[in-house]
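Here comes just one.
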Amino acid sequence: MNGQGTLIAIIDSGIDYAHPDFRNADGTTRILLLWDQTLGRVFDSTQINRALTASSSQEQYRLVPSRDLSGHGTHVAGIAAGNGRASDGQYVGVAPEANLIVVKLGTEREEAFPRTTELMSAVDFSLRQAYVLQMPIVINLSFGNNYGGHDGTSLLETYLDSAAAYWKSLIVTGTGNEGDGGIHTEGSFRGNRGVSGVSQEGTTKAEAAVIEFSVGEYETGFNIQLWKNFADEMRVSLVAPSGETIGTLQSELGTQRLETAGTDVLVYYGMPSPYSVSQEIFLDFIPKGNYVDQGVWNIVLTPVKIVDGNYNLWLPGQSVVGGGTAFLRPVEETTLTIPSTASKILSVGAYDARFLTMAPFSGRGYTRVNRAVKPDVVAPGVEIISASPGGGYTARSGTSMAAPYASGLASLMMEEGIVKGNDPFLFGSKIIAYMHRQALPLPGYTTYPNPVTGWGRIGR
């Protein structure tokens, strides 16, 4: 099996379409369509082939001016479907004859998370083209962020769950690289409450909770999200590094402001959504000068009326905040990035295939609230050598590298089932179920599924 007759959509930072690993033996492209959202143009294989025969690189990029500036998308595509031609077959992707659809998202920075509309448009485009071509498709999303309730109910996640039911498809995403980043913590008031959780006076018997976090040097601003059940009422106050206590804010919908000598904090009490009973309390730290006050801060949560009692807090992620900004008592569970907490997509963590050890950065499960098993599986994601712009190769690590391994494997399964006629319904959740069943244990873990490896590892 080599993925022949299937499609893999790489929705990422673009691709070096001239790289030999994405060309056939006769030099023609394996990319059927390339949509560059930053240019607002779609290039088909005929246009790409015309560019590939140009007399100079200047003429080539005049004809098809799409470039992968970060190299991330090229690397991801090589893992899923590179054919190794530039390395004489040394660095071959999982599905080396799969056809490619590439969408360069409308964002220029490697670590920038695309707007939801751009991503949804890219997924919709890929699925519609697969239907027109009558080919099964795997859609690879090698990115994520921390904004949301991590429970599968965000707009993007509900969209992806709906899109997963369209055509013969599977959507794959990585779980992010925040597992050991100190960006998540959690707690509960439930241990101290009575049967109802509320006293006769209407206040809980639980004590206030104190969440400590540090702010590093030169932090120009960041936010913290607190997610809880909407039925729970709690007040928020802060203790600045100077020891100054500010607050307490009431549980009132809308935005309120806390002020210290050097930092303003905007606190927003959100509302539940049509898809979730959860509430977000959003804290936005804004420096009055150049930087947020450095040192140890405390968030103090005072319970007013507690019914459920659980709460989770997230920082934006290591690509947004500096290395010295983190929770002092972090919880590595539920560090999955969004959209990997969606229920109907394949969520992939990373392990080090060289030593059969878990990658410490890999985002962990389970999801918040319903505790759904995520990641589904883990795949090789440490020091993975794959294609880079310019025709060569480079090594990268991350769940961004693990996800395309699973995407390539899913493409091979679709080839065996759908293309060859052995199982015309081998797509979507059926592939996820087979991966669960075929996953292998990782040394050090005896219970499966678990929040670190999910159902186990895939890969050699």
User: Anything to note?
Assistant: The chain has two domains: 7-178+337-438, 184-327.
